[in-house]
């Protein structure tokens, strides 16, 4: 049995597990928000869009999603 920390952020295996679980085939479509830079790095290493958030989380998420939608 694998150590459960294998599937915890920022370990890339944790991000890959989520992809498989959700059936995601294009990790570049995933937007990941977190308040820790190390977790953002893990997400980006997995090919996800990582966004570091702070106090005004909702507006930061709204801005990232709006930007993503306008670029598609």
From TrEMBL:
Molecular function GO terms recorded: phosphatase activity
Q: What is this protein called?
A: Uncharacterized protein
Question: What is the species listed in this Swiss-Prot or TrEMBL entry?
Answer: Enterospora canceri
Q: What does the record give as the organism's lineage?
A: Eukaryota, Fungi, Fungi incertae sedis, Microsporidia, Enterocytozoonidae
């Amino acid at each position: 049995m694998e150590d459960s920390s294998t599937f915890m952020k920022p370990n890339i295996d944790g991000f890959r597990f989520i992809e498989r679980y959700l059936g995601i085939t294009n990790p570049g479509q995933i937007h990941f928000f977190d308040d820790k830079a190390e977790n953002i790095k893990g997400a980006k290493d997995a090919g996800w869009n990582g966004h570091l958030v702070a106090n005004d989380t909702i507006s930061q998420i709204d801005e990232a999603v709006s930007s993503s939608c306008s670029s598609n």
